[in-house]
Design brief:
Blueprint (H helix, E strand, L loop, with lengths): L15 H13 L5 H14 L11 H11 L2 H10 L12 E2 L2 E12 L4 H7 L15 E9 L4 E9 L4 H5 L10 E5 L6 H8 L4 E5 L10 E2 L5 E5 L11 E12 L2 E12 L9 H7 L5 H13 L11 H29 L8 H14 L7
Parallel strand pairs: 2-5, 5-6
Antiparallel strand pairs: 1-2, 2-3, 3-4, 6-10, 7-8, 8-9, 9-10
Helix pairs in contact: 1-2, 1-3, 1-10, 2-11, 4-10, 10-11
Length: 366
């Protein structure tokens, strides 16, 4: 609150710190309405006789309190708390000493208001008027594969490309990490922006990319070069190692899919091609993270209700904060029992957190 200049100048029924918890509560109990969420947050205090003379404000008061708070405190809180959580002992979190991360993007449907449309725009559609029913916010995210924790995120209107947003995420990278990404991100400027951090990369290659062999390795991989399509970097090729393999469909060889990956891990002995190919499937864990947040936590096909762009951003940061808190709880629970965090149910953890907030105040605090 102090860092964002949101501290109160006078005593209020809804101090800014309480409003932060209320906004987090909206994400935790989504899509419950305002007054029901506030009742969930204070019910345990009432039961223990700690509520005193305080009473649940009117919905209009809660709405104005959210506007006063804005989105910046939630964004700063996320930037402060969203750190890697997995350890070397966490199953699936590391490979040969490298922390596994993934990047990708997704979109959020937001309330159909003029302000939201002006700020975020709406995508095209092949049906009806040719425009989507709702404006959309595009989000690019960096995720720790082993814990499903979001480490960084960028928000913009839906007309901003994923590559543009992902290019802002290297700020959260460091040596000792291996970043997995899909084929739409492979380009020399983005590759260099990520690799200059000291992190290693393992990205899929578009089908039309030509990767000539400059050195062949015994495991079938080879050294090659990628070049920028234009600009000064066009004459400065980047050396990569290429892996090519096939994944068989259940129906057999005829339906096999061909994949090519490029990596900064150039030593074929230390980083065998077969192991890297098997490792790449971990990239899909980020899709599970998006499903946890947007389907289970927010609610399937739920549209973010805020009618202003700042309110929309506030809601999204709150959802990311609550997800991080839930994932931290799941990681601790799994560690005490020696389990892979993937074996702990996200939906059961979400339900448990909702119960604990209502019944036992302070037992689950983002």
């Amino acid at each position: 609150m102090a860092a964002c200049g949101c501290a109160e100048q006078r005593k209020r029924l809804l101090p800014a710190r309480l409003v932060v918890y209320f906004v987090l509560g909206l994400a935790l109990f989504s899509p419950a309405p305002y007054l029901e969420v506030m009742r969930h947050l204070v019910e345990g205090l009432r039961g223990q006789g700690l509520l005193g003379a305080w009473h649940v404000p009117a919905k209009s008061s809660l709405f104005r309190a959210r506007q006063r708070l804005g989105s910046e405190p939630l964004r700063v809180l996320f930037a402060t708390t969203a750190k890697p959580m997995a350890t070397e002992a966490t199953p699936g979190a590391f490979w040969r000493g490298l922390r596994l991360l993934a990047v990708d993007g997704t979109c959020w449907d937001v309330a159909d208001t003029e302000a939201n449309e002006a700020a975020f725009d709406r995508p095209g559609s092949g049906r009806g008027s040719g425009r989507s029913a709702f404006p959309q916010v595009r989000m690019a995210a960096l995720v720790e594969v082993g814990s499903h924790a979001l480490l960084d995120a960028e928000l913009a209107g839906c007309r901003t490309g994923e590559v543009t947003l992902v290019a802002r995420l290297p700020r959260s990278l460091s040596p000792g990490q291996l970043v997995l990404a899909d084929r739409e991100f492979l380009g020399v400027p983005l590759w260099q922006a990520f690799s200059v951090t000291g992190a290693d990369l393992l990205w899929r290659v578009p089908a039309n990319r030509v990767l000539p062999v400059t050195k062949q390795f015994r495991d079938g991989s080879w050294l090659s070069q990628i070049r920028a399509s234009s600009g000064p970097a066009r004459n400065e090729p980047v050396v990569v190692r290429v892996l090519a393999y096939r994944l068989k469909d259940r129906v057999g060889e005829a339906a096999a899919s061909e994949y090519r990956l490029v990596t900064t891990l150039l030593d074929a002995r230390r980083h065998p091609a077969r192991q890297l190919a098997a490792l790449y499937r971990e990239r899909w864990e980020i899709e599970s993270v998006f499903a946890e947040i947007k389907t289970h936590q927010r609610g399937a096909r739920v549209v973010l209700s805020s009618k202003t762009p700042d309110g929309v951003r506030q809601q999204i940061w709150a959802h990311l904060l609550v997800h991080h808190a839930l994932r931290e709880l799941m990681l601790r629970t799994a560690a005490t029992r020696g389990l892979d965090p993937d074996r702990v149910s996200f939906t059961e953890t979400l339900r448990s957190a909702r119960r604990s907030v209502t019944v036992t105040p302070g037992s689950f605090s983002p």
